[in-house]
Design brief:
Protein name: Fibrinogen C-terminal domain-containing protein
Largest sheet: 11 strands, antiparallel
Radius of gyration: 62 Å
Structural class: alpha+beta
Helix content: 40-55%
Mean pLDDT: 76
Keywords: Disulfide bond, Glycoprotein, Secreted, Signal
Subcellular location: Secreted
Number of helices: 10
Main location: secreted
GO molecular function, one term: protein-macromolecule adaptor activity
Length: about 500
């Protein structure tokens, strides 16, 4: 093997270096050794004896290596080569490697610390996520409960709406029945009035005949005749009812008043619009008919009561309460509220025909008011009284109601009085009821105000509203009997009267 020879050569060179210059000789020796070793690895065995000369320096050597025949496999010791390579490494490079290694270790430590800190943050994030999930679950639960409550309220509102619709349907049916009864009562009243007039005419003729037969001397009337007259008066008195409230019984619709006069509480003589306007007079049936109450007053009828009125150019007999003692008389009462005994939340047909009790609360009827106010120039007087007894008035120098084609539109003149002007806002407005909506509001004002009136959007006055006892009332809407300029819309007045007279 050639390895021992190489080792011996290297040893020899190492010893010879002691005699040469330390730096140059050492470099030369290592270069020769490396060159020989590399040559031995790559050259064939036949050329092993011819070795190149070592580089020259201060000391030079020439060696002749005997040729050896290599018969086996060539084995290279990697351990010796690695040791030689390591021994040739630069110390600076090792130092640099150590510094880099230390730097990397420090970075690793820093990363470990960061991982530890990040681990705490991750745990906190996990806790926050868990709390967020819990909050979301709670919010979902609350939202579900809220939806359930909303659905329940909607169902309740739907049920209330259905009940209201049923109530309205029942009310409409009752009002239809009441309208039929009203028509029958009107016809009955007209017949009674005609019979009464004929009876009075017959009585006058009989009296005149008796006077003529006795040579001008009047004869005492027979008791049977007086009884007949009283009976006729009693029958005529029963016709003063236009329409009872829908809750009244049949016995209430035919009261037995007899021929005695109805005596309201007495009041002082009328001298100004602010005085008491509680009408006090006997209920009187006279022959008539007259054009209006002022015509009856001019004909000598100075007693307040029920009169037969036939407007000009109209073949209709009207029963009207004529107030002949207030401000020189001649006033026709077209509306009166005093005790809440009559329901004013009615249909178009009711307000058209009229309803109530002429000697109590009543509405004369839009047709009747139209016939009266279009035959001549009329003025309107509105009398108001609160629950403290304070009385005020509002007067308009012209008043007219158009026909049904014009939806009974209101025409008003100038205002004067002490109540404040709460009706001019309704001027030129059509009449509206619960089943005929002619107002300017998006809904039906009659449903909110619970009456019939010349609504706009909706009302500054509502004299046909709900009669609340005591004045101030609580309601979802302003539906009382109010005059906004006098005590406001949340105060229901005690007494209201609307009267007309020729201007």
């Amino acid at each position: 093997m050639w390895r021992p020879a190489v080792l011996a050569l290297l040893l020899f060179l190492f010893i010879g270096k002691l005699y040469c210059d330390s730096g140059e000789a050492k470099k030369t020796q290592k270069g020769a050794a490396a060159t020989n070793e590399a040559s031995d690895q790559h050259r064939p065995s036949s050329e092993a004896h011819s070795q190149p000369a070592a580089p020259t320096g201060k000391c030079s050597y020439t060696f002749v290596v005997p040729q050896q025949k290599i018969t086996g496999a060539i084995c290279l010791s990697s351990k010796s080569l690695m040791s030689e390579d390591i021994s040739g490494l630069n110390k600076t490079e090792l130092a640099n490697l150590r510094l880099e290694l230390g730097e990397q270790q420090r970075q690793i430590e820093h990363i470990k610390q960061m991982v530890e800190v990040d681990g705490g943050i991750v745990n906190e994030v996990k806790l926050l996520r868990k709390e967020s999930r819990n909050m979301n679950s709670r919010i979902t639960q609350l939202y579900t409960q809220l939806l359930h409550e909303i659905i329940q309220k909607k169902e309740q509102s739907l049920e209330e709406t259905q009940l209201e619709n049923r109530l309205l349907n029942i009310t409409a049916q009752v009002l239809k029945v009441s309208a039929s009864n009203q028509e029958l009562e009107r016809k009955y009243g007209a017949m009674i009035s005609l019979i009464n007039n004929q009876s009075l005419a017959i009585a006058r003729l009989e009296k005149q005949c008796l006077v003529n037969a006795n040579g001008g001397q009047p004869q005492q009337a027979h008791p049977g005749q007086a009884e007949s007259k009283n009976k006729s008066n009693s029958q005529a008195d029963t016709s003063n009812e236009i329409q009872r409230d829908q809750t009244a019984t049949l016995t209430d619709k035919q009261p037995q008043r007899g021929h005695q006069a109805i005596q309201p509480p007495p009041t002082s003589a009328a001298s100004s619009p602010t005085e008491s306007y509680i009408f006090h007079a006997s209920v009187t049936k006279t022959a008539g008919p007259w054009k209006d109450c002022q015509h009856a007053l001019e004909d000598g009828q100075t007693t307040s009561g029920i009169y037969l009125i036939r407007p000009r150019n109209v073949n209709q007999l009207l029963q009207v309460w004529c107030e002949q003692s207030y401000q020189n008389g001649g006033w026709a009462v077209i509306q009166k509220r005093q005790d809440g005994s009559v329901n004013f939340f009615r249909t178009w047909e009711h307000y058209k025909q009229g309803f109530g009790n002429i000697d109590g609360e009543y509405w004369l009827g839009l047709d009747s008011i139209h016939w009266l106010t279009t035959q001549d120039d009329y003025r309107l007087l509105v009398l108001l009284e609160d629950w403290n007894g304070r009385q005020v008035y509002a007067e308009y120098d012209s008043f007219r109601v158009e026909n049904e084609r014009e939806q009974y539109r209101l025409r008003l003149g100038h205002y004067q009085g002490t109540a404040g002007d709460s009706l001019s806002w309704h001027n030129n407005k059509a009449f509206t009821t619960l089943d005929r909506d002619h107002d300017a509001y998006t809904g039906n004002c009659a449903h909110f105000q619970k009456g019939g009136w010349w609504y706009h959007t909706c009302a500054h006055s509502n004299l046909n509203g709900v009669w609340y006892k005591g004045g101030h009332y609580r309601s979802r809407y302003q539906d009382g009997v109010y005059w906004a300029e006098f005590r406001g819309g949340s105060y229901s007045l005690r007494k209201v009267t609307m009267m007309i007279r020729r201007a």
